[in-house]
Write the structure tokens for this entry.
Amino acid sequence: MKEFIVRLFSLLAIVGVLFGYNEVLDVRAKDEEIAKLNAQLEVQSSGASSDSESGSDSGDGAGYKDGTYTGEADGFGGTVAVEVTVKDGKIEAVEVTSAEKEDSAYLAMAEDIIPKIIEAQSAEVDTISGATFSSTGIKNAAEQALEQAVK
Amino acid sequence: MKKLNIHNLKAKEIKKLHTWLRALIQILYFLFLPSVYTAAFAGVKYIFTQIGAGEVIGLTSFVTVLIVLCAYTILFGRFFCGFACAFGSLGDGIHAFYIWCFKKKKKKPVLLSEKITEKLSYLKYLVLTVIAVLCFAGIYGKAKGTSPWDVFSMLHAGNFHLQGYLPGVILLLLIIVGGMCLEERFFCRNLCPMGAVFSLLPVLPFFALHRDRENCIKGCSGCTKKCPSGIGLPEDGSLKVEGDCFQCQKCIDTCPKKHIHTGIKGLKGNEFWFTILRAILLLVIMIWAGV
């Protein structure tokens, strides 16, 4: 009886700590955002406007040709194929078109690399830890696809 | 075809049927859902990695699998370990083959003594702690190539590009030759970090196994001897949790007086319908969790 209760409370404590941890980070992230917005407001109200949009065309160097491109690379158990869509010179979407031999839980995790690629406008991003094989597959396939899109 | 009536079978035949049913479920899970255990443990590693890096813990597919599997284990005990884990099944297969070889040669198989393995069984907590600390410190990623699980998963998936995985290959071979052969469920009982997590869960008493010790034959410890974890089961009505019970259910048929049963009256725990129901339920929730 005692053993069961000790285990139960330990488990609840762990779950509670994890939730609390997430909550704290959430609050911190919000605080930071508020601070950032406040700073922006101050800058705007003080009149020093125009240059707040600092060099918006950072993706200019990347500059891809518009179109859809496909690429393939080795994933975990086989080949991963992706389709990269470029619009207005920017990577707009990366889609995994086939990954038959990949495990779906791992693939779902590995697909977290896609937003990273779009954000960086390049396939040169870190792989997803825990799903290294599948995410490396997506990364390399996207790299291959983007080689065709380089101006 | 003669219809099989399971109510008229002798105890020995029923025992055989139970063994075959378990083997069948294990083979099916081994072939079609081989990555559940790594996915669940990837959830554990992910949580420690995120905390170490000060990042938010998201409900990723790994974490979902981990939560679902833990919830299932709290309710049904470690049925997953006994029936569905690919690495556990690998161990069962290798151990069965090893025993069969010795039988063919009419020799007594060399096995680890219970005295040694009883102490070894604490190693899994050390394995779990070390991996958790490495993840927390953010250096686990650098240990790439050392995990015997990775090597096994790659081989299972037909990926033989094993360069850079030498430590993992050596560990896997050591575990197979030096462990799985010499003790039934060697890895699960002594080394499995996911098993370490499972063995600490507050498993509910409804479907956990108990024995009616009062009416046992004096001095009989058939169930403990048969048990891969050497467990002396708790008494009826006890809330004691046997964390190392993999639900292999061998004890139930071994007991000469049929004293072993689940916490629910009238349910022994190895009925065909009950085993199949749990296996299907596990399959459904695993597919739901996205494995």
